[in-house]
């Protein structure tokens, strides 16, 4: 039986064709808005055909009618982002190196599926592709970080995209036989850590390996703590959450989000059946939402670059099948999980 795990993945919501370069749940307070609940909401079949097929009546920036489509990206190679051997009971990270073909490919939430019987981990790297605008042929390398915790044994991590050939064989050692000391400092296993932190290894000053509790991330909005920033340290961890005195005050927030006094970017939009509506262009959607095209048509959605705090209310980034409202036009969008 395949267990589905959504990994964590850097990048802000793409706007226009300048697209930016799976689980943290949004537990901080949401802005003072009262979203109408998605469920029970209309599915695509209940919407008027004229709504689904209507041409754009409002163009996007520069006269373009922009939309978003989710596509898979082939992985060039996997790298182990750890300084010490991995064992059961402690998390580790794998880097999936990819190549984005042009400026219209931006980051989308990575999908991870774990098969404990076959000892395989299938990783699908995805991109939000902006349509309707000019794409600059600016090929660029990108790295997506996938956080895993596996049972002891020999495992194969593989690219699950069509035709993907990248593989990484890894041996997970037996767990440490030691009592948990949950103080959030030095660690041997995840149970030594607090909150969203896990036990990871890295190299410090002089290249000396060490382990410590840290919260992995790829974007600032992956850091659930108020004022958290996603940062790489020269003598420490790559891409983990750190506390910041200024938070979003200095870095700013994506479109559709506002910087709270706590230093956290919070959504200014509500999510519900009245905002997740049929669309033809991004301009038909509230700020922070985009016109996402999927198998059921086009709908205003929050296209998640990672599995972080991009959503509002009782919504989390996930797959379409997990959205109990039935509104999701695509995977990797904010779906309603109920109460």
Mean pLDDT: 83
| DSSP helix fraction | under 10%
Shape: globular
Distance between the termini: 27 Å
Main sheet overview: 9 strands, mixed
What is the tally of helical segments? 2
Order of helices and strands: EHEEEEEEEEEEEEEHEEEEEE
Q: Provide the β-strand percentage band.
A: 25-35%
Ranges where pLDDT stays below 50 over 5 or more residues in a row are 1-35, 40-59
Radius of gyration: 20 Å
Total E-strand runs? 20
- What class, by secondary structure content? mainly beta
Short précis:
Helix content is 3%, strand content 33%. The chain is an all-beta fold. A hairpin with a 5-residue loop joins strand 15 (257-259) and strand 16 (265-267).
Main attributes of the structure:
339 residues, mainly beta, 9-stranded mixed β-sheet, 3-stranded antiparallel β-sheet, 2 helices, 20 strands, 33% strand, globular, disordered N terminus
